[in-house]
Design goal:
single chain, 90 residues, alpha+beta, four-stranded mixed sheet, 3 helices
Length: 90
């Protein structure tokens, strides 16, 4: 694991985009990361009915989600706004 990427405890449901917003830091720079509801539903193999439920599922899979986000950060796979979008878990 690259110690240059550190994930914060910040976690929130963004209802505007139906995604969990979490963040990482790399070399002191804060990076906004997102994983959408559909990816979480796929991980859990069930429908998500609330932001609270989505955050609980995120917590269950936190290690895998952060691992994938770290890979994307290292690949510099940022979207046009500079965010990392976790679209699948490998």
């Amino acid at each position: 694991m690259n110690q240059g990427v550190i994930f914060t405890e910040m976690l929130e449901w963004d209802a505007n985009v139906s995604a969990i917003h979490f963040s990482a830091q790399q070399q002191g720079v804060l990076i906004d990361c997102y994983i959408n509801k559909q990816v979480l539903e796929h991980l859990m193999a069930e429908k998500i009915n609330s932001g609270e439920q989505a955050m609980q599922i995120f917590e269950q899979f936190r290690f895998d989600i952060e691992d994938q986000a770290e890979k994307l950060i290292e690949q510099e796979a940022f979207d046009v706004q500079g965010h990392i979008l976790v679209e699948r878990i490998e």
